[in-house]
Amino acid sequence: VVIPPGDDMGGVIVGGQLVLITVDQLADGVHFDSALTPLELIGRKAITRNLSDVAAMAAKPVGAVCAGCLPRGFGEANANRLFDVMREVAERYGCPLIGGDISVWDQRLILTVTVIAEPAGIEPVLRGGAKPGDVICVTGRLGGSWTAPAESGGGPHMEFEPRVSLARKLAGMVKLHSMMDISDGLAMDLPRICEASKVGAEIEVASLPLRPQAHTAAKLSGKPAWVHGVGDGEDYELLFTVSQADAVKLPGEIDGVPVTRIGRVTGGGGVMLIHEGGRREAMGPGGWEHHE
Amino acid sequence: VVIPPGDDMGGVIVGGQLVLITVDQLADGVHFDSALTPLELIGRKAITRNLSDVAAMAAKPVGAVCAGCLPRGFGEANANRLFDVMREVAERYGCPLIGGDISVWDQRLILTVTVIAEPAGIEPVLRGGAKPGDVICVTGRLGGSWTAPAESGGGPHMEFEPRVSLARKLAGMVKLHSMMDISDGLAMDLPRICEASKVGAEIEVASLPLRPQAHTAAKLSGKPAWVHGVGDGEDYELLFTVSQADAVKLPGEIDGVPVTRIGRVTGGGGVMLIHEGGRREAMGPGGWEHHE
Q: Which of A112, A133, A182, A202 makes an SS bond possible with B112, Cβ 3.0 to 4.6 Å?
């Protein structure tokens, strides 16, 4: 085992070649609501959630297998639609579905996808490489991923774009010291980079790139929008650190996706939020817990 | 994709190296009954079911990832016991658990395990290589895999030994033309080899090696024991074909596991059962459907 559990993908050597592997499940009532969400979005997310882990390592997807437990009465037409979407989305990312296992049961729909990937010329970027003085960056925008017209069953948490090619472009521009994808929210995920790297971090609250939905969520909750930016989770954006010298080489956006400096790595002291005017506070967990 | 869906494992090339992958899920109420079955057997089967697919290709396991959806209230102690068993069983077969994904929901327990494997010097044995004239063989004994004292929750379908090392020993002795593991029962699985190989088959009913449990099942059902041997499923034994010249090289048992000639491959005509006295009948599906 070359990359043990705890990173976005595990890694083993197969015939002298590093092979990366990740698994994610998507369960009705936990990760989506089948009463609201179109099958097309469910199938899409089953694949893209895994591809976001591949992006987090700057790796290249190679293939996927899918296991599904379908509720009795789900119907063959629905099953075909679901698997067609998964196949199509996976192939769009060069990741053919090469096997599966389907059962029928009297419980709710659950899909489990495993993706294998290869470095393909780019050393996998782990969580443990952040260095004091590094600049912390994110791709895209954060927050409010669950805030969508309720009747749509969609929103960013279902329709995000996994940053597979973006991650590899970043790796070609700069030396990525550490990287992961934001699935549980910056407030829960940044401490994971800090723990793996034995460093601390400071986040400039005013610099956080927020989704329009984070502001919508703020209106609904009465909390500041940045709280949604760090706490909502399911952003599926890249969180990474680079040296200060490299940070200046980064463009403000790549292929239309913003790349934003949000803070810096420190020698220790946990994760601190720096508010406008300089007020400092420790970033609480406040991370996302699965909605139901 | 080098080995497309339809075999026991899919195969893709990663950096010039063939990597095999398989996924299987184990769902409460479908593949086991959590009210009866000890966690140790559930964890064991989650791993061994996949390893049986690895054996079916004569491949060598490299690593595994596991996704689990735990029922609310399952408890941390139970979760730890379950994953400890999986880790321990997997490592016994040289197949470290290198990642996972755990959720909690208000439905029943489901575990999904993905295993990757490598050829490691033995060309993967597919289903499509059977040739007319081949001898059909099985390892171990068949039938009655669900027949156990009901209160034990166990029996062969939970406690079988995946034939990983046995398959590789067989591959070292003879040229395996085709192979798979018997999961749905000989009556459903042998036709899969025939279809993939575009051949037919004849099975000598009297030659079928039956488990003691097949006879127990026969007493309970009033059907002949061989019906349980071909129809019960979840045997997780190897079904393979070799040339007649190679068949004579096979010992009657390897490491205490019987290796039995049960019939021959024909040019076509479906799968026929040859009864004692010469009566012929087409083998119906009669394959195993998931118990509940």
A: A112
